Structure formats: C-alpha cells, structure tokens
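Weekend entry, working from home. Most of the wet-lab plans are on hold until the incubator is repaired, so I used the time to fold the two sequences that have been sitting in the queue since the last round of cloning. Logging both here for the record. First:
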Amino acid sequence: MTVGASIEVDLVVTGDNGFAVLHNLELSEETTGSGLVSELGDDALRQLYLRDNTGAPTDQPVMLLGDLCRLMAAGSIHSDALLQLDYKQDETVLNDAAIRNFREATAPVASNLILSSGSARAVDLLAGLGETTDNPSQKPRIGYDPCSEETITALQQTADYRGFVDTALATSPDAEMIYLAWQLVIELDREGFDVIGAFHDAGRRVDAWTIRTVNDDTRPIIERLLELRVDQITTDDPQGVASAFAI
C-alpha cells in the first residue's frame, strides 16, 4: 500500500466484539485454532497462527482489524491505495460495542478504506451512513456485493437482469463500487446483457471477483472483462495479471 496497491481482506466478529481478519466463521481451516471466531476474545485470537493453502501452519499470527489499522497509520500509505474491508456476516451480529469498535479502529485511516459486504444494512451501521459528523474523512467509502447465492439462483430463474441492477442500486444507494462475481458477468454477457455497462450508466464502478490465477482458462475471461470495461479485478495472482496484460 505504500506504493499505491489496493488489497482486500475479510472481517468476522470476535467474542470481544472486535473484528478478526479472517474469511471463515470457524477457525480450523484458516488458523491453528478450533471452534468459532465468535467464541474467542481478541487476545486469544492473537495467539493463533494462519495456515497456508496446504493447511500447514505459518509464522503469521491472526490479525485483528485494530492491529491492521494501527499498522497502516504508522506507515506511509499512498493516497491512491485502498484497503477493501469485506465484512462476511450480516447486521444481526452487530451490537453497539462492535459498531463502536469498528469506527474507533478505522477512523484514523478511513480515507484509505472501502467497506463492502453482501449486507447493505451492516455497511450502513458500521460506516455510520446518515449520521452527521464533523469529519467526513473518518468514514470509509462504501461498496456492495449483490451476488448472494439466493439472488443468483433467482436471477437464473427469472432472467430479470435489469431488475437485478435496479435492486442492487436501491439496496445500497451509497455504494460507489459494485462487486460482481466474474462468472455472473460472463454469463450475462453471453445472454446479451452488459451488466458492467448498466452499473456504469448509474455512476457506479465495478469490481469482478475473483480470478484465482492466470492460465489458459482464465486469460480469455480477463480479456473479456477488460473489453467490457471492468474498473477493477480482484485476483489472487496480481503479478500474473500484470505480467500477462502488461499492466
């Protein structure tokens, strides 16, 4: 982030109403721990270590959102760098303490953050949308991911592609970035509907997620996403994408 790179991390709520930088609600697959993230306090989570893609423990401890934001605040973050905080749960697990902890942790670096989720209500609560503040820069930017399994299943049944766009815009009217599964973008393109263009017409930017690696199968997908003018691609292989497409 010191040179302007943008990164995405996931967040789940801890037993102390903090936020762990983890994807899963259960600990065993990602970390050396077991049980639910929500059953452990922040200090206990910090004693655990991440596992690599083979399942082997690493020397990297589990990080909490507050730790990550303090690390950012202590460094020199490029003004163009953006950290996407992808909240993996919904609003029902957010209490006043969790909301307060989120805002306190993120306020010092909010200008370099974008908060996203499949729950627009959760984003509203965490970011304090609609609440007045003396310093708007202490609020993160907003993103929205409308690609829940239920929504995609319904879309495949109804083929109401325009309705999908309109519903997403109405559900999260403050979102500046819309996060779409690349499979959905490509499928709708084959059906003759430019979903990226539809969101562009509404003044939104679009991220296509997630290209795992660049190979003979994914290269044509990336090429088509670029032809459709996607604004951003989430990938686990940024160096491969940059190299293959001379970015």
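Second, folded right after the first finished:
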Amino acid sequence: MAPIGQSRQYGLRIAQLWRSDIRPTLSLGMPLALAQIAQMGINTTDVLMIGRLGAEELAASVLAFNMWMLLWFFGMGIIQAVIPLGAQALGRRAARDLRRTVRMGLWIAVLYCLPAWCLTFFTEEILIALGQDPTLAALAGGYMDALQWSLLPALGIMAVRGFLTVMGRAQIVLYATLAGVVVNIGLDYLLIFGEFGFPRLELFGAGIASVFTSAVTFGILLLYTSRQRALKRYAILGRIWRTDWSVFFKILRLGFPIGITLIAEGGLFAASSVLMGWLGTVPLAAHGISLQIASITFMVPVGLSQAALSRVGYAAGKGDTEAAGRAGWVALVITVSFMACFAIVFWVAPGALVSLYLDLDNPASVEVLYLATSFLAVAAIFQIVDGAQIIGTNNLRGLGDTTIPLIYAIIGYWAIGFSLSLGLGFGAGWGGVGIWSGLAGGLAFVGILTNIRFYRRDKLKLIS
C-alpha cells in the first residue's frame, strides 16, 4: 500500500503545483486586460466627440489615427521585447541586466520616433498619394500635426509597462490608464469644442488631448517606479544617457519580428474590412459592429498573454523548463476557458449584443442586425482560436523565440487566412460569413503551430 500512498501524495503535490500557477497568472493578467479595455475607452471617447464635429472630421480622424496606429503597432512590437528579456534577467537575478533592458527600451522609443515623425509630417501628401480625398487629407494632416507627438510617450509607456509587468505590478498600469481616460475626456471636451474659455481647436484639439493623455499616463508610471521601494533600487532612469549597444541590438533582434507580426495581423483585419466593403455598406457596417464586440472580449487574452510572456520568460531565465511549461499551459487553459464562455454568450444572445450599437427604430438596422448576429456565430469559434494563438505566440516570445512564430503568422494570416476569406467569401458565395470563417481558419493555423512548438521546447532547445 505504501507505493500507492506515495503515488497519490506525489499526484496531489503535482496538482497543487499546477494550481499554484493559476492565481499569479490571473492577478497579473486581468489588470492588464482591464487596462487594454480602458485604452479602448480612450479611443472610443475620441470617436464619439470628434463625430459631433461632422462626418468629414470623423473620416479624417480615422485616416490619421490608422496611420498613427500602424506606426505605434510596429514600435510597440519592438519594445515589447523588454518583457521577455527583462523577465529572463529577473529569473537570473541580474538586476543590472533588467535595468539596462528597460533603459535601452526607452532609447529605442526615442530613436524610433525620429523616422516615424518624418513620415507623419507628410500625412496629407501620403494620403493624397494613396488616393484619398484632398479635403479629408488636409483635415487628417492637421489632426496629425498634434497627434504625432503622442507617439513618444505612448511608446515610453510600453517600455515602463514592460518593466512593471515583469515586476508583477500590473495594478498601477490599470490605474494610470484609467487616469488617462479621465484626462482625455476632459481635454477632448475643452479643446475640441472650446468650452469654459478654451479655444475651439476641433481636430487639432483632439490631437493635443491625446498628447497630454499619453504624457500623464507615462508620468504616473515613471513616478510610481521612482517612489516604490521595491522598484526604486532598479533605477530604470539612472544614467539614462549611457549607451548599451549589446542590449540595444538584442532588443531589436527579438522585437523586430514581433513588430512585423503585429503589422501582419493588423493588416489581415484591415484587409478583411476591404473585402467586406466589396459586399456593400450593410455588410461592412455589420462587420464593424461584430469586430468591435470581438475586440472587447479579446482584451482578456491580450492581458493573459502578457502575463504568460512575463512568467514564461522568468522561468526561462532560471533555466526551469518545467516552470515555463506550467506558466504557458495554465495561461492557455485559462484563456480558452474565458473565450469559451464568451463564445456561449455569442451563440445564445448575439442579438442583444449587436442591438447596443443600433437604433432599432430605424428600418435599415434590421439587415445589419441579421448579418452581425450571423458573424458573431462564427466569431464564437474565432475567439477561441484567436485566444489560443496569442497565448502560443507569447509563450514562445517568453522563451526568446520570435522568428519562427513570425513565419507561422505570415503563412497563417495571409497564405491561409486571407486566401480562405477570399475563397469562401466570394468563390464559395458565403459572403461575410465566409470572410469571418477564413479569419478563424488562419488564426487556428497559427494557434496550433505555436502551441505545438511550445510543447516541443525541450527538443528544440528553446531554453538553454
């Protein structure tokens, strides 16, 4: 009986060890997820207030903001390398390496903005060259004249946020983002419409509000890191002028594929909107609503994947492949469970969700409602595989493995996802449902391959 009893105790210890990974994953990941949702609130505020200026102003702001977002996505992807490299340094108990990583992340934010600003200075000319209406291009250029300066604090936020994620201080990221929401609402109201004696600056005022919002959020995070006793000793701004080219290029080598991956994924969703536009205005409107709903729920996997990125990186820094595996698989199970719950809601009550975005007294809304609910039925599956792919991808990033996942992403998003969307949507005649099915297929491909690669991490020697 003794061997049986010992086996049972061993099994209980293993189960307890796995359960012990659930709480830190949730405590780190959920505040980050809520911070992502709060960030969406900032963008939503801009759209709602600019929309009151008129259709032309709103359209121009979308053009400028999409260009800004493209630049921000790529820069954010590069700087996101601070998380795995910082976590690995913490796992090695190398405080100096962690400080150097964050410092060089801030350097990259500054240096990246220099060529990025060279592009944004010519926003009007670029949009006209892309065939946009000259009037809208001029309005967009005026908006970008202010908005472009928010790029530096926005990228600085990502570098400091990476440090705080590694240190398990996700709550302050949420609080700082919520403070940014409040600042943005107030400044938008004052500067767009010229209330309480402020000048009416319209789109330019919205851009100024974005600059101050990012600067305030960045300032709060920096202040926190300099005041908290456990963080102050890392002195991430200490000798900020000092170069450290080996770490600088290490971040670039790891982060560049991440930036390309984000662009590839963002480009796929932009292309899906173009395909949907070929079907007509009503399908495009339904697509926009469905995508907005799916984007909100997707913030949960985003937060959990950042937690996985940090925790897998920390275990990799210690050389503990079993701990890295537990951190990654626990994040995957939690994420898929969350997304399965959201999928049930999408299947059971799609009409209630879509109705929040429509005026049901308008007869034209009926067709939009019908199409959007059919898209959400596919989005239910789409959400599960999308959650799996972002966890799988960030688990590999935590190990410092970014090049092969980039190849998976390009093949999955474009060779498979876009081709399926085109084939099913138009060749098979499935319409919008076919386009969404293609997206799901591409994401499923990436999710399967990244998680298989993470499973084979020992054989592939991804942890040294």
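Plan for Monday: verify the second prediction. DSSP finds 18 helices and no strands in the chain.
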